[in-house]
Amino acid sequence: MTFSQEVLNRLHALSATIAEHDGTLLSALSAISFPKPPKAKYFTDPCFSEFEAALILQTNRENPRDAITWYDIEWNPYTITPFTPGTADFEEWDGIADGLKPQLKVDHETPTLIAIANHLGTGYVVVAEDPNPEDPDVYVIDHDLWLGEIDYDMKFSEFLDRFATEEEFQDEVADYFRTIKDEPPLETYIQEYVKTNPHLHDAVAVFKELNWHTAKIEDAPTLPLGTTEQQERALRGLETGDWEAYADIPGFGHTRIPATDVDEEMLGLFAIRLGVTPKRAAEVISDRYGEQVAAIVEKRGADFATEFINHSSTRFPYIAVRLVLTMGLTPPTSETYIETWASMLKNTSLHPDFLRILVTKFQPSFEQHWNIAKNTPAASLVIPNAVAGGLLDRDEAIDCAFRSLAESTRPSDRKKWVIVIADDLKLSAPELHKYLDTITKVAATHETVVIDKLVLDLLPILSAEELSALVPHALQAKAAKTRKAVVACLASRPELKESLAPVIADIPSAQQLFDAWERSRK
């Protein structure tokens, strides 16, 4: 199989190469490669509405191709087999992709899809069995409806025409600068609104000299910092000052005004490695790249990390937890921090080797954290895995759960603790009996979950005196199904009528119990 001349001409214009292939459509598509990620046409459109995009293009006017990445087309052909029984894709997409098959312009029982590219939340797909492989149909599918619905289709040659050749790329850049030639440079707004360090641009120049601006974020902990002179220049420009501001700008509306054209996340990591203070470090990073932030902060030592956490644990709790667990630091007492720690401990159960993770990662500092968490709502997240992993004594967990249940004022909180007690800790009726006073108090809310999960198991083992305090609440459960279950549980004990009748006579559902007792006597 050979692509049509129109397709070949367009690929040639785009500087693409085609390696040898076996003649199948999949092989031919996989053989196509581009020297650099192809750009979609109209890549300058965002520059008329987004300040940051405009700044990047204007700052990199002499060499814009590498700087402009927002319209890159990701070319990476791979197969998907949602219609072929026995494949992993079939299992994953069965029932979801059913509506897709009738929309394909092929007559094949089990068509194989080839996802060829992605661009701005949209996937582009061809069918391996396309009857016209020389210029196959390309189906456009929104990622939010992936394999569920086709938006529209076009020929492969039309799809390639969406890519900009080098000449088209340069023409579009030139058109953009002709359009804005009478407008003030964006630097004017940066100077007006952003309170930058006067040496910031020199620091960014060093950042670029060391190729940090093109490096991968995962390499940030080990990238070079340059000579002593470069480090001093960079640190001088990064240790103070703002890197952004917000203002109303003509043509852009209320917008973020970045002071530089580089990735500020990466610039922040660069600043920490250079030696900014812990407080400054907390100002110039986010939790988007928490793993890299934690790795770099850890290299600065325990004192730096502790102070960094003091300034950042509320804004970046995941980073703080990671540092505390890794470095053996004293945990902060903030609610945000302890909730995050508790959530992370809870989520270990999603990992197949979660018991090992509990022991190696959470056990060393568990007692310190638990002493903070046990008096907060976060305790409900901790108890199930902590007991299962042997980090927390079950009896202590039960005491904590009932204490928290008694103190809860919101139905949602009570439900949470009831689930911990009944489902996670799986208390037996005799164990529940030890906390009868608390259960009776909470049953007064008549909440269904309390009666279903705590009271029903208790009813068969309680004395008449104990039942006289609890049954009135149980018979007023908010769910009819639960009230019927209470009646069924007590129906075989007509001897209770004498002691219970005075306290339940005015409760509507009590009549069902009286009737059940009468039937049992016959």
UniProtKB/TrEMBL annotation:
Protein name according to UniProt: Uncharacterized protein
